[in-house]
Amino acid sequence: MSGTFIVFEGCEGAGKSTQMRLLSELLQKRGAAHTVTREPGGSEISEAIRKVILDGRFTAMTDECEALLYAAARAQHLADTVAPALARGEIVLCDRYIFSSYAYQGAGRGLPRKFLEEINGYAVSNYMPDLALFLDIPPAQAFDRKHGVDEDDRMECAGEGFHARVYAGYKRMLAEFPETFVAVDCSGTKFETNAKIAAMLEERGLIPRA
Ligand code: TYD
């Protein structure tokens, strides 16, 4: 793995896609080769798994099945998209990674961390991000920003209590992985947040300076 692996994490509506787009534009301007991708999805097979996981009709899906499908999508996406881009020496910007499984399936659904570490251990082998950015905005505020819940999305419909547990789970991980999992204060405008993110990545030598 010779490239740089940067992950974006956060609750629904935290602004991950906007921040990934702004960072991608900045990298483009600076002539840095990069790949923008997402989980679950980011490759043909993983996008097919994504449809199954998020399908609003599948209310009977067990928590274990859900966790295994996320891990399965992750394994395939890593092999198809992330690992090849890193091998080419690119910067990979990935929307969500294992921290999402620990927050949503662990803190949110209540699955044991040991089970999640084990299945995700198979999925990611030694591919850990150089940095995972947690876009820190509480779920209630984030849902307001995105004008409510998408009724066709099984995860978004999981309820306020669930999303509050996910957020708390993310916050706990900041102390658990202080080197790789860091919070970004998102209370300013999207451009202010973008500038904060760029500065954090430049300081760590993960992206080229202007
Ligand atoms: P995403 O497309 O990032 O949703 P959004 O853009 O609305 O934030 O992710 C899809 C959903 O999958 C989201 O509700 C978070 C959830 N998820 C997990 O529960 N576990 C995981 O491991 C991952 C990657 C995502």
Task: Please provide a written account of the structure.
The protein has a five-stranded parallel β-sheet with strand order 2-3-1-4-5, sandwiched between helices. The protein is of the alpha/beta class and 210 residues long. Helices cover 53% and strands 13% of the residues. The protein has one domain (4-203): Rossmann fold (3-Layer(aba) Sandwich), CATH 3.40.50.300. Helix 3 runs parallel beside helix 5. It contains eight helices and five strands. Bound molecules: thymidine-5'-diphosphate. Thymidine-5'-diphosphate binds next to helix 4. Thymidine-5'-diphosphate binds at residues 12, 39-40, 70, 95-96, 100-101, 104-105, 155-156.
Domain count: 1
Distance between the termini: 25 Å
Any ligands, ions or cofactors bound here, and which?
A: thymidine-5'-diphosphate
- SSE string: EHEHHEHHEHHEH
Low-confidence stretches: none
Indicate the proportion of strand residues. Answer: 5-15%
Q: Which fold name corresponds to the CATH topology?
A: Rossmann fold
Can you identify the CATH superfamily?
P-loop containing nucleotide triphosphate hydrolases
CATH class: Alpha Beta
The overall average pLDDT, rounded, is 96
Strands, count? 5
Overall body shape = globular
Can you lay out the helices and strands and say which pair or pack?
Elements: E1 4-9, H1 16-29, E2 34-38, H2 44-54, H3 63-87, E3 91-95, H4 98-108, H5 113-124, E4 131-136, H6 139-145, H7 160-176, E5 181-185, H8 190-203
Parallel strand pairs: 1-3, 1-4, 2-3, 4-5
Helix pairs in contact: 1-8, 2-3, 3-5, 4-5, 4-7
The structure holds thymidine-5'-diphosphate.
